[in-house]
Amino acid sequence: MAISKLHLLFLLSLVSLSLHRPVLSDNDEEDILLKGLNDYRTSLNLTTLTHNNNAECLADELADQFKNQPCTNTTGPASVPGSQPGFQDFPKFLTKCRLDITATRDGEIMQACVPNLDATLVLSNFTKSRYNKNLNDSKFTGIGIASDDNWIVVILTTNTTEGGYTPAAKDSNSGALAFGVNGVVSSCLLVLLFSCFMF
């Protein structure tokens, strides 16, 4: 019986290790920009920006909308404030990312178009443009970054209810899917564990 328990322990160890793999980013441009922006803020004695999944979701939707637009002087940080096209699908993006408009009011959306997303040029498009006033502001504590084609979108968040990009209140049916993959895997492990001790 001691051998079967040892085998069971080994099997459970393998399963748990396979479930807890580190998540690797598929967008190096975004990781490089985040590091560069945090280095920039550190040089100004400001706190580093922490990753915000909800802001990243919205940035991803916006980057996708920009991807077919050419880079011009009327897009990105070189544009005159108010001259950029509005985000006509913004309410749809908020819904897709499960965000409430009130949780985004104090945030800041910044976008840049850089051919081939050259890392040095992307960073300078944020740190050496009108966007740097946002990066220099200590009220911003979080960040979401997404890129698509030559476009990169950065969303700065605050730690307030009006800028934290917190999810909208759940509806009554949203809990039905909360069990998810982790719940299924946990259930399978419990069944396996139970069956091993039964035999």
Describe what this molecule looks like in 3D.
This protein is α+β, with helices and mostly antiparallel strands and 199 residues long. The protein has seven helices and four strands, in the order ααβααβααββα. A four-stranded mixed beta sheet has the order 1-3-4-2, with helices on both faces. α2 packs across α5 and α3 crosses α4. The protein is globular, with a radius of gyration of 22 Å.
Task: Give me the secondary-structure topology.
Layout: H1 2-19, H2 28-43, E1 50-51, H3 53-66, H4 90-96, E2 108-113, H5 119-127, H6 132-135, E3 142-148, E4 151-157, H7 180-198
Parallel strand pairs: 1-3
Antiparallel strand pairs: 2-4, 3-4
Helix pairs in contact: 2-5, 3-4
Question: Briefly, what is this?
Answer:
This protein is α+β, with helices and mostly antiparallel strands and 199 residues long. It has helices at residues 2-19, 28-43, 53-66, 90-96, 119-127, 132-135, 180-198, and strands at 50-51, 108-113, 142-148, 151-157.
Keywords:
about 200 residues; alpha+beta; four-stranded mixed β-sheet; 7 helices; about 10% strand
What is the end-to-end distance?
A: 10 Å
Q: List low-confidence stretches.
A: 9-26, 78-84, 171-182
Written as H for each helix and E for each strand, in order along the chain, the element string is HHEHHEHHEEH
Count of DSSP H/I helices:
7
